[in-house]
Amino acid sequence: MKDEPEESDLSSSILEKKDIGKPAIQDFKLYKIRWPIVLFFSSSMIAGGLAQIGLSPIMSIIKEIYGKDGIIISLLVLPFTIFFIPLMYPANYLIEKYGITIPIYIACITLVIGAWIRMLVNTSFYFLLAGQCVMAFGQPFVISSPAKVAGVWFGDKERALATTLGSLAGPFGAVIGYLLPLPLISDSDTDPKSLGRSRMSRYILIQSIIITALTLPVLIFIRNRPPTPPSASAANSIKKKSDGLIKNSFRLLKNLNFLLLMVGFSSVYSIYTTLGAAIGPLTHSFGYNSRDNSLFGSIYIVGGVFGSFAHAIFLDKYSRYKMQFIIIGITNCISFALVIFLISQGSVVLTACLLFIMGFSQLPVIGVAYAFVAEMTYPIDEALSCGMIHLLGSIIATAFAFMATSFIDNNKTNLALYILLGLCVLGLFCKFFIKEILKKKRAGIRGTILSFHFGNTSFPNSYRNTIRSEKVKAEQ
């Protein structure tokens, strides 16, 4: 079976034969509600990012207050990565069979329930851990959905930007998670422990209120898809019958380009996840405190947000997926190496600047990789292809996070950092061998040419010059 759909499949998804020789023209429309949809979806992802990272900068404080060791404390963050491993396929089954609405409901409801379970933390520390696990349980149902939402609601010229908005929502929530503890709890609150427990309860309360407020709107406004598709590729995805998760998974695993992209993505994503799980112990080993952690984490994410939007704008304009993927790999290796060799200087300003550069270099990999894999593996569902690259990233990230925490507890912090740098270099090496095959964009252009040829005038003006030039090329 060919990876690329046949021309007859494309044309049949765009032209429906009502009478012999009289094709009915498929309308492609961009609905204004697409932006509220992606923004409300992103707000729920922000809540998930806050839930995942909100305890990360104060891990050393939690360790002192509740008397738990480093591995147990790291489990307050790692379930968000661990649960993705067994739940990726059930989540994608729901997305493929029922659309995005039901998975988003599951993610949001578990997020709110888990947030409020944590209010019992002063009854037992394990209520805090249980609440984190309940919240983490629902997140696999939406983690790989940004490309799906973008593909269903947005046209070819906006898809990369919409994917970036969704994929950056989690990191943006992480910024809130890093900054929120600053006015509410500090290292001095560990003595006496009763004061620390009181401050911890207050912090969890405020965090839970924010999570609930960010989550509820999407439950009201989310829709599976627009009345009519926004592009030829979206129309074809709706019409085309899926081959099933297992068969499509094997097709992906036989695709060398997909495997190389998966390793390239995982090498960068693993560092982001490991830092989230171990930033407290990591920076503490170099003499930094919890307030420094909040600054470092937020600066890292802010740098990533700037970098991601820069890449998204460039991607929508020029569609140079491989080039941008390689740039991310090179800048990631350089910036991470600088952090390794200079973090021991003890300068908060220097380290913050380096982490801004590292975030600018690393976080764009999420949006670029999601958009790239959706193009490369079309017509396979975006949620499955994005979910599979995220699956490997989650497995590697979990292993490296436990390794890093163990090494840091045994005063081998530099060894953990060097191993992560080696992973970066491996990912960069793989990126050079990826072939840039943009199947989804090609299908969209070809489908659009067909509709334009039969006189469809419903396209946005921004498409018409491109369509006309592509039509001329096709006729030559």
What can you see in these coordinates?
The chain has 476 residues and is mostly helical. It has a single domain (31-216, 229-437), classed as Growth Hormone, Chain: A (Up-down Bundle), CATH 1.20.1250.20. The chain has 23 helices and two strands. A two-stranded antiparallel ribbon has the order 1-2. Strand 1 (15-19) and strand 2 (22-25) form a beta hairpin. The relative contact order is 0.15. The model is unreliable at 1-25, 446-464 and 470-476 (pLDDT under 50).
Which whole number gives the mean pLDDT?
A: 78
CATH fold-level name: Growth Hormone, Chain: A
Helix content: over 70%
> How can the largest sheet be summarized?
2 strands, antiparallel
CATH homologous superfamily - what is it? MFS general substrate transporter like domains
**How does the overall form come out from the CA principal axes?**
globular
Ends apart, CA distance between termini: 29 Å
The poorly predicted ranges are 1-25, 446-464, 470-476
Q: Secondary-structure element order, as H and E?
A: HEEHHHHHHHHHHHHHHHHHHHHHH
Using the CA coordinates, give the radius of gyration: 23 Å
CATH architecture term = Up-down Bundle
- Number of helices in the DSSP assignment: 23
Number of domains: 1
> What structural class do the secondary elements suggest?
mainly alpha
CATH class: Mainly Alpha
| Order of strands in the sheet with most strands | 1-2
What is the number of E strands?
2
**Strand residues, percent:** under 5%
Protein name: Major facilitator superfamily (MFS) profile domain-containing protein
Main location: membrane
Keywords: Membrane, Transmembrane, Transmembrane helix
GO molecular function: transmembrane transporter activity
